[in-house]
Design a protein that fits this description.
By secondary structure, the protein is mainly α. It has 15 helices and no strands.
Length: 367
């Protein structure tokens, strides 16, 4: 009667690469998340703002092609036509290309290359900051809370960690699920906008003039993805109820936004009061009722980097902090006083979220 060795034996099959486990977790998570009808609608809706920005690219390049590149006042003095799509492009050049107004050749018109880079950079920055980041916060709030909390509720780690899956593989797989969604909402539409600008430009040389913008788009998306993904997964790992994690995610964004708006408004009121008091002292008046000076806060102008004031409370809000760092990546913001505090705040938030996430994922294996 033959004897069979039922003990441990060495594996003779083909080993999978180290990232295979994370890839399987990621593909399964993306496939399950894509079954949500709301997620599909949100991703499709996230592409709708790209139509407006694509029209802006077309209008600007139409103005360049028609030679209507001086300011409106200069072109009116020279008797040039100021109607049609080219006029809209000239308005964009006057508004978004302000920094290049001093770079003028002998004919008095701005440098086309410098203005194009600045206008394209500000359009892409406004696209990523104003509509896409807000939509991304909503989509991440729909997908991320269930990624780990569902595993905790179903005790899925009994299946995960009885296989050759490590803690890092598990975390990277879950992060990759959100990374794919973020790329579908931010990277792909922004690169498509850059490609549309190349197609409508009068010369193929625009590729050599703006070749680094897709790389800046990728870097800005990474800056957006790392803190948001880590924070969302940390909330998901702290509870087995995805509703609680979702509430914590949206409450964090709302509370930080309200705190930033309140402190910014207080600064505006204080500055207006100091300005009025100084005006009264200069005029020699003693009894003048104080009235705050009206000031319009243009959200799109701030998103495009047109508001040059330093937002000293940006580090309080993830949305505003990410926006400042993205402005630095696109070359719109270069002042260390504006960039360093939000960068430190985002780094601290990412480190704390990563520590909580690693601790919570390893906790079931130690129980």
């Amino acid at each position: 009667m033959p004897l069979h060795d039922v003990g441990y034996r060495s594996w003779t099959g083909r080993r999978l690469p180290p990232w295979a486990a994370a890839g399987v977790i990621a593909t399964t998570g993306v496939r399950l998340a894509w079954t949500s009808r709301w997620l599909r609608r949100a991703v499709v809706f996230a592409w709708s703002p790209a139509l407006f920005f694509a029209a802006s690219f077309f209008a600007f390049e139409q103005a360049v092609e028609e030679g209507r590149f001086a300011s409106l006042q200069e072109r009116a003095g020279m008797g040039r036509n100021i109607d049609g799509v080219g006029m809209l492009g000239t308005i964009l050049a006057d508004t978004l290309g302000q920094a290049s107004a001093g770079d003028r050749p002998a004919d008095g018109t701005p440098d086309v290359v410098a203005t194009r880079r600045l206008v394209w950079s500000r359009l892409l920055l406004a696209f990523m900051r104003a509509p896409q980041t807000v939509l991304l916060a909503v989509v991440v709030g729909l997908v991320a809370p269930a990624l780990i909390s569902r595993d905790l509720r179903a005790k899925a780690w009994l299946v995960y960690f009885t296989r050759p899956v490590g803690r890092l593989d598990y975390i990277c797989g879950k992060m990759a699920v959100l990374a794919v969604i973020i790329a579908a909402i931010t990277v792909v539409p922004a690169v498509a906008l850059w490609f549309a600008g190349v197609l409508v430009s009068p010369s193929i040389r625009v590729v050599a003039e703006t070749w680094d913008l897709p790389l800046r788009i990728l870097a800005a998306s990474v800056v957006l993805a790392i803190p948001t993904v880590l924070l969302a997964l940390a909330y998901s790992s702290l509870t087995a109820e995805s509703r609680i994690a979702s509430f914590a995610w949206f409450a964090t964004w709302a509370a930080c936004w309200i705190a930033h708006a309140s402190l910014t408004t207080a600064d505006l009121v204080t500055a207006a009061e100091a300005h009025d008091v100084a005006a009264v002292a200069i005029a020699g008046e003693e009894d003048v009722a104080w009235r705050p000076a009206p000031r319009r806060l243009n959200w799109i102008a701030r998103a495009a980097g047109l508001d040059t004031t330093i937002d000293r409370w940006a580090w309080l809000s993830p949305y505003h902090a990410i926006g400042v760092i993205q402005a630095g990546i696109f070359g719109v913001e270069s002042r260390p006083r504006a960039i360093v505090p939000p960068a430190i705040a985002l780094a601290a938030m990412s480190a704390a979220s990563a520590a909580v996430l690693a601790w919570r994922v390893a906790l079931p294996t130690r129980a």
